[in-house]
């Protein structure tokens, strides 16, 4: 018969304190360079007690707490990496993650039994890994980058590793604008909803195989002109993907509906300079519509980004535009013009003036918090200034065909949308097969 009263919870508290002392004596777990599967943290201890709030009585907690009768499981473990100790009551989701891994349960079966979408189960496992309860194999997305000595920086090479993969999905060619630098105005029949869902299933398999988190960035054309956009958005949310949009201004009601499904990680729109020049590229009244739309994004707490396509004509307007946008957008940056499609008719930046522009942009970014560093060529200036280079457009230099790929409305996969870089078609081969194919650009 179990004890009652103060003596009983004192006994459970002593068991907890002893387990904590034993844990603190153990070395921090080190994840092998390559383990083959998910595993439970080797120094995790799960103890059962019959009183709640016992964790609040440990030495570091000073609040006067009186335990209450009630069954509780307590997790004690050291986090990989820094070795910090975690002691807390186990949540139902943490216990579920442990059960799935220790009993080698099929995630689809667990989701079906629980009556939830598969992404919910994937999220449970992913969060347990982030917390250090489970240990996962390292990301398979790696590449080695050699750095050339310059301006006092020592020669070194580094193995880069990305923990995420972005699928930039051009779901339609249809667009309500006709920009002068459009990459592709050709007519491509969009995929059916069923084909789109199949691609999301492929993408889930891909990120699980590569042990990374997946992001789907919907774009076009104008993604909202794809007939099944809302349904496809819902499906992406069901698969535990982070979701973003690169598009034109939309309505508050449309955004509110998407936020109800799953909050956007960001929404990116485009400006090509100050009002007069921008509207000459993207259409009359476009600049004002963007400024009004940024207010809507702010009201809905959606992270906002403005992208500029840098040409010879608008290079002199970039810094002034950045000041106009200060406080109105979360991030502002630029991409150099790709002279493909209709963009071939425009002139790119003058080579002899571009370096000076980068210096001014880099200097201005130090006092304007919205200005982001994206163009990899900025590193030329940083190295000359004996500053540490930054990670470039994706954090890993150019991420094309590394932690980023584009899919066109017909399923064609490209390393990058800005130039012809075909890898294959996702309706004919899986994403994993295409990523490993000889057509992939490195």
Q: What is the N-to-C succession of helices and strands?
A: HEEEEHHHEEEEHEHEHEHHEHEHHEEEH
Which descriptor suits the 3D outline?
A: globular
Query: What's the total count of β strands?
Result: 16
Q: Which value, in Å, is the CA radius of gyration?
A: 26 Å
Classify the secondary structure makeup into a structural class. alpha/beta
Please report the number of helical segments. 13
Overall average residue pLDDT: 88
Q: What's the N-to-C terminus distance?
A: 67 Å
Major β-sheet, in short? Answer: 9 strands, mixed
Oligomer state equals single chain
Walk me through the structure:
It is a single chain. Mean pLDDT is 88; it is low at 150-157. Helix content is 33%, strand content 20%. Helix 2 packs across helix 4, helix 3 crosses helix 4 (118-131) and helix 5 packs parallel to helix 6. It has helices at residues 6-25, 92-102, 107-114, 118-131, 193-210, 229-238, 252-261, 275-282, 286-299, 318-325, 351-365, 378-384, 431-435; strands at residues 39-40, 45-52, 68-78, 85-89, 134-135, 142-147, 156-161, 164-170, 213-219, 242-246, 266-270, 304-310, 331-336, 404-407, 412-414, 422-425. The longest helix has 20 residues, at 6-25. Strand 15 and strand 16 (422-425) form a beta hairpin. The protein has a nine-stranded mixed beta sheet. Strands 2-3-4 form a three-stranded antiparallel beta sheet, covered by helices on one side. The chain has a two-stranded antiparallel ribbon with strand order 1-5. With 442 residues, it is α/β, with parallel strands linked by helices. It starts with 5 loop residues before the first helix and ends in a 7-residue tail after the last helix. It contains 13 helices and 16 strands.
């Amino acid at each position: 018969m179990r004890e009652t009263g103060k003596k009983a919870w004192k006994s459970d508290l002593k068991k907890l304190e002893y387990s904590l002392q034993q844990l603190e004596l153990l070395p921090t777990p080190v994840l092998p360079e390559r383990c083959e599967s998910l595993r439970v943290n080797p120094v995790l201890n799960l103890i059962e007690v019959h009183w709640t709030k016992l964790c609040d009585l440990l030495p570091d907690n000073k609040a006067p707490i009186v335990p209450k009768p009630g069954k509780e499981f307590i997790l004690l473990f050291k986090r990989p990496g820094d070795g910090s100790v975690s002691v807390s009551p186990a949540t139902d989701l943490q216990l579920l993650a442990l059960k799935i891994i220790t009993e080698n349960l099929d995630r689809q079966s667990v989701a079906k039994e629980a009556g939830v979408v598969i992404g919910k189960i994937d999220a449970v496992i992913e969060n347990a890994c982030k917390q250090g309860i489970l240990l996962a194999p390292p990301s398979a997305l790696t590449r080695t980058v050699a750095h050339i000595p310059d301006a006092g920086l020592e020669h070194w090479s580094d193995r880069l590793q990305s923990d995420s993969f972005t699928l930039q999905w051009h779901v339609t060619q249809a667009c309500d604008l006709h920009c002068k630098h459009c990459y592709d105005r050709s007519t491509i029949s969009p995929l059916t909803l069923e084909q789109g869902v199949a691609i999301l299933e492929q993408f889930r398999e891909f990120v699980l195989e590569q042990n990374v988190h997946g992001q789907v960035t919907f774009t076009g054309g104008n993604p909202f002109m794809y007939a099944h956009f809302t349904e496809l958005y819902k499906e992406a949310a069901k698969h535990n993907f982070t979701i973003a949009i690169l598009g034109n201004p939309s309505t508050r009601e449309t955004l509110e509906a998407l936020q109800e499904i799953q909050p956007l990680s960001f929404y990116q729109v485009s400006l090509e300079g100050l009002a007069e020049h921008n509207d000459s590229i993207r259409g009359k009244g476009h600049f004002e519509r963007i400024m009004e739309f940024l207010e809507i994004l702010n009201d809905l707490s959606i992270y906002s980004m403005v992208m500029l396509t840098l040409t010879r004509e608008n290079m002199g307007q970039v810094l002034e535009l950045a000041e106009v946008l200060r406080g109105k957008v979360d991030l502002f940056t630029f991409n150099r013009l790709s002279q493909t499609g209709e963009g071939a008719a425009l002139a790119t930046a003058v080579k002899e003036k571009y370096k000076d522009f980068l210096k001014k942009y880099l200097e201005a970014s130090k006092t304007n918090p919205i200005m982001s560093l994206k163009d990899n060529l900025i590193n030329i200036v940083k190295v000359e200034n004996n500053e540490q280079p930054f990670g470039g457009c994706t954090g890993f230099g150019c991420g094309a065909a590394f932690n980023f790929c584009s899919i066109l409305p017909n399923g064609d996969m490209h390393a990058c949308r800005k130039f012809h870089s075909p890898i294959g078609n996702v309706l004919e081969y899986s994403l994993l097969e295409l990523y490993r194919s000889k057509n992939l650009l490195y």
